[in-house]
Automatic annotation (TrEMBL), chain B:
It comes from Imhoffiella purpurea. Belongs to the transketolase family. This is Transketolase. PANTHER family: TRANSKETOLASE N-TERMINAL SECTION-RELATED. Residues 92-272 form the Transketolase N-terminal domain. Its cofactor is thiamine diphosphate. It comes from the Bacteria. InterPro entries: THDP-binding, Transketolase_N.
């Protein structure tokens, strides 16, 4: 499978070239958030706001009121925690088109608890007017700016940086409010987001080899959450649903799926894979995904639970699974 | 930066500004009696500052909003095209017009009263004050007359005004952005973040008037959290600072009338008296933040006082 080096960095420069109304505001993490290319290409549209996120949110709100489109670039924790009141009151209440690009989602950083955004989706989801998007691969990264810019209101984007895999065909961009249907099946439905989708793909390929029929959808729009394909996939799952996210299980994908299942009366079990009401700590992504059960093996265990079956799958077997870049399944009939 | 013109070619006299300020105090006292409670001391401290801003400092066009405020049209949102702000009372937006950003929105009644005195708002507009479903809120919101941004979480308006000023500079507008703040807001860290950014980005098209009445909710500011020496602190942050008598219209207007082009924010610290014009309030010190009359006797005292203030005009 192809990986792409710093897809946002190049894409932002290319994308913003014909959009003079697009500005970037940064809080001393410019290269860390791959905005250095933009800064160097369009210095008149780049504003260094210093380590002062509360003020940065207010400036962004004022610029947006004047018809400009500020793209905030900083780490997800510094978008969602420290300036929460400013995001809520200066940006979200007036429904201003500020794009909040948050880097280092969940345990993708070894920076420890202060840098790990494990509650950012929850915090942004609870704000009225806020839309929430999450990238899972390089194709998502390259198309999320178009998706965000089409929204009439503020958008929070969970962004990936550095070396990013290309899970999805570059010709199939992210679409607002539509999950990517990666596989169909009748026994289980797996809904994954962000970096957990790659793990899910690995486990699902192995589980299919054990005879399980699994529907798999990659969720990139966490709010609004109104995709009929998701509802149909949940309704069609014979044995249960699994959500898998690089985030706490409270307030993120697992919660929104639980809310949907309860409100629509879609019976059946739900297993939420994610951080289970715990903070994490500084360590490698691979180590933390294993420690907190966010990896492919965690999905195997969930499938064992829902099917009351023991699968003979080892971590070695899962790591040997070869993944190819996938195209969205052409759906001829409803699940 | 171009010289800032007042809204009329005829320069209002100091006496006319003072008489508008006195009328604002009377109207706020009247509504404090009607509602049994109000931010009365804020009218006493800020009446001349706001009157001077509107009559001498800001370049505003005539109101283009309804003189009787529209009812609440719902919170802003993608599915609510009817939501509005109260900025229209400050005239149309345009490259050469100034903008007014009102930060301590618990002063709302002072602003409404001033807008009435200036003919921008109907005197009956206050019938809807603090009424369910109205936009004439007790604590102003961005839909309230004269308000433009969501500012009630104090210290947030200055940053928003900074963004507006930056956008205006990028556009090449000649109009300035004027912000009215309370001194208590200088306890918020965000305020200092904002001044650092205004100075760093050289935003000389923004001016801030501070009602330094030295009072806050818990009492005198120096008993809660001292912010002095405010002028020195702001100068150290890169602002051009003037400290003036906040009840003297000429002194208030002078810093804004300078012809000099600025590359830094202008701050006018208006030292004010929270009991100015209503001496009786002094007996309530140090609790002046929100005035509620406790007995019928007290009501009668202030009712009589209001009548005397009205007679004093003639």
């Amino acid at each position: 499978m192809e990986t792409v080096q710093r897809p946002h960095r190049e894409n932002l420069v290319r994308w913003a070239q014909s959009r003079p109304e697009v500005l970037v505001l940064s809080a001393d993490l410019t290269a860390s958030c791959e905005a250095d290319g933009f800064r160097d290409a369009y210095p008149e549209r780049f504003f260094s706001m210093g380590m002062a996120e509360q003020n940065m949110m207010g400036f962004a709100a004022g610029l947006a009121r004047e018809g400009l489109f500020p793209f905030i670039h900083t780490f997800a924790v510094f978008v969602t925690r420290r300036p929460f009141d400013q995001v809520a009151m200066s940006i979200a209440y007036p429904n201003l088109p500020v794009r909040l690009i948050g880097f280092l989602p969940g345990i993708t950083t070894a920076g420890g608890v202060t840098h790990q955004a494990i509650d950012d989706v929850a915090l942004m989801r609870i704000l009225p007017n806020m839309s929430v998007l999450e990238c899972g691969d390089a194709t998502d990264v390259e198309s999320v700016l178009d998706v965000a810019q089409a929204v009439n209101g503020p958008v929070y984007v969970r962004m990936l940086r550095g070396e990013v895999p290309r899970l999805f065909d570059a010709g199939e961009p992210m679409v607002l409010g539509r999950a990517r249907v990666l596989g169909e099946g009748r026994d289980l439905t797996v809904l994954s987001s962000g970096i957990c989708t790659e793990e899910a793909m690995r486990a699902i390929q192995a589980l299919r080899g054990q005879g399980l029929s699994i529907a798999h959808l990659h969720v990139s729009t966490l709010k609004p959450f109104e995709d009929p394909a998701i509802e149909a996939a949940i309704a069609g799952a014979r044995l249960g649903v699994v959500t898998m996210e690089n985030h706490g299980i409270i307030g993120g994908l697992g919660s929104v799926v639980a809310e949907l299942m309860a409100e629509k009366g879609l019976g059946g079990r739900l297993i939420r894979i994610g951080l289970r009401d715990t903070y994490a700590h500084g360590a490698s992504r691979r180590y933390l995904m294993r420690e907190y059960g966010l990896d492919a093996m965690a999905l195997v265990r969930a499938a064992e639970d829902l099917t009351s079956t023991q699968f003979d799958l080892t971590e070695e077997a899962l790591s040997r699974v070869r993944l190819e870049t996938m195209s969205r399944i052409d759906k001829t009939e409803d699940l | 930066m171009a010289r800032i013109h007042s809204q009329s070619s005829e320069r209002p006299t100091v006496d006319s500004i003072r008489s508008v300020a006195d009328a604002v105090r009377r109207r706020v006292l009247e509504h404090t009696l009607t509602n049994n409670g109000g931010y009365l001391s804020q009218a006493c401290s800020s009446a001349e500052i706001l009157a001077t801003l509107y009559l001498r400092v800001m370049r505003l066009g005539p109101s283009d909003a309804s003189s009787i405020p529209k009812p609440f049209a719902g919170v802003p949102g993608a599915d609510n095209p009817d939501a509005f702000t109260g900025a229209g009372y400050n005239g149309p937006k345009g490259p050469d017009f100034d903008r007014f950003i009102f930060s301590p929105v618990h002063y709302a009644l002072v602003l409404y009263s001033l807008l009435i005195e200036l003919g921008r708002l109907d005197p009956n507009a206050l019938d809807a004050f603090n009424r369910d479903g109205s936009t004439v809120d007790l604590i102003g919101a961005e839909h309230s007359p004269g308000h433009e941004v969501t500012a009630g979480s104090l210290g947030q308006a200055i940053s928003q005004a900074g963004g507006i000023a930056l956008a205006r500079r990028l556009r090449g507008d000649s109009g300035r952005v004027w912000v009215f703040m309370s001194d208590g807001e200088f306890q918020e860290g965000q305020t200092w973040e904002a001044f650092a950014a205004l100075a760093y980005h050289g935003l000389g098209n923004i001016g801030v008037y501070v009602d330094a009445n030295a009072q806050q909710c818990d009492g005198p500011m120096d008993s809660v959290m001292c912010i002095e020496p405010l002028g020195d602190r702001l100068r150290a942050f890169g602002a051009e600072v003037h400290e003036v008598d906040g009840h003297d219209p000429d002194a208030l207007a002078a810093p804004a009338e300078s012809m000099a082009e600025r590359d830094r924010p202008l701050v006018v610290i208006a030292r004010t008296d929270p009991c100015r014009g209503i001496e009786r309030l002094r007996e309530r010190a140090p609790k002046l933040h929100y005035v509620r009359f406790k007995s019928e006797t007290e009501f009668e005292t202030y009712r009589t006082l209001l009548n005397q203030m009205r007679e004093g005009i003639r």
